Amino acid sequence: MRIAMIGTGYVGLVSGTCFSDFGHDVTCIDKDAGKIEALLDGRIPIFEPGLHALVAKNVKSGQLSFTQQLADAVPQAEAVFIAVGTPSRRGDGHADLSYVYAAAREMAEFLSPGVVVVTKSTVPVGTGDEVERIIREVRPDLEFSVASNPEFLREGAAIQDFKRPDRIVIGCEDAHAEEVLKEIYRPLFLNQSPVVTMSRRGAELTKYAANALLATKITFINEIADLCERVGADVQDVARGVGLDNRIGPKFLHAGPGYGGSCFPKDTLALLKTGQDYDTPLRIVEAVATVNDNRKRSMGRKVINAMGGQVHGKTVAILGLTFKPNTDDMRDSPSLAIVQTLQDAGASIRAYDPEGMDQAAQMMTGVAFCADAYEAMTGADAAVIVTEWDRFRALDFSRMKTLLKQMVLVDLRNIYERHEVERHGFKYVAIGR
Questions:
Q1: I want to staple 128 with a disulfide (CB 3.0 to 4.6 A). Which of 91, 200, 248, 312 is the partner?
Q2: pLDDT per residue over 55-104, tens digit each?
Q3: Is 209 in the same domain as 244?
Q4: Number of domains comprising the chain
Q5: Which residues are marked as active site?
């Protein structure tokens, strides 16, 4: 099947590449000349394990191509996916749909009869209706369909998630759109991936509801972790005891410094705004967003307390900057608030992240970025694990003793056992333990 993918960001590039690997003919389109030039040159603008090799493979086979021009691909496409950004709009927190609507307006003149336009971007309820209205305004006589096909990709595991999904959600209003989307995803039927078909508005809301619920689980266990510290329990024991209940499950019950990334912060906020627009307050989601925002700075204060309550003139080594491992994404990362809190208290920061330092350098000031974890710890008064990269799971404590001024390790991801760290003579501070 011939597919045009508008947008070569995280969702568009991963989705387009995986569709091409299924055997479809995919053209990814982006206005950003720099992105297209990089992709044509074999350079991938984002870090995602396995993506570089998969892009190269499908470009070589002729299944995947890149262009700046809608006219190069949209007229031939049987399905056109919109996978552009929907960031939080400044001032009110609503999802900024200007890129989605611009894509709809600009593609309209190139669409062929029978085409299915699919919103892959995360969009609020009713966006598909507006996309359809825009296209009909430009092409009133065109026969076409508009569908919703939300993505549920985890950064760092996106290819696996795309090829072995928990479910495929299709939101459509006519049989033709359903038929086309099922044909696109037919290669996954061999994996028995369930296809859930519903209304377009239902699909749009499903994405937001899923992310809000996952964010709620994270925030819930973080608050339980705070209680564990007060009552003398271990949150990891509690999380395991809770997560073995099949009704709850163990995923997203890992206490930490709060959620970040490109999805949860903006999606919970957008869902809240949708609730307000429809006079349906979402009090639980509202509490989740507030608690998570407050938690990030409280983690900075946790580090300060671990260092004796005062960090003015001291140096802190930050290990990990991205919101999670196996990505270079710094959007709403807890490290941003933690570093700012420490700097506000007078601390100097030395930091290392395997993939995120280029992005971090654009978002942080006054930070010394280092070549590895040990360089970051050289001369520091404490080391703080903020992101659970694998390379931080087997730190050389004997070497750390020679580098750190004070033997303090703050583990905000609970990747070590207390006895393991303390037997080396370190003060160990973790989350909920």
A1: 200
A2: 999 999 999 999 999 999 999 999 999 999 999 987 777 899 999 999 99
A3: yes
A4: 2
A5: 263
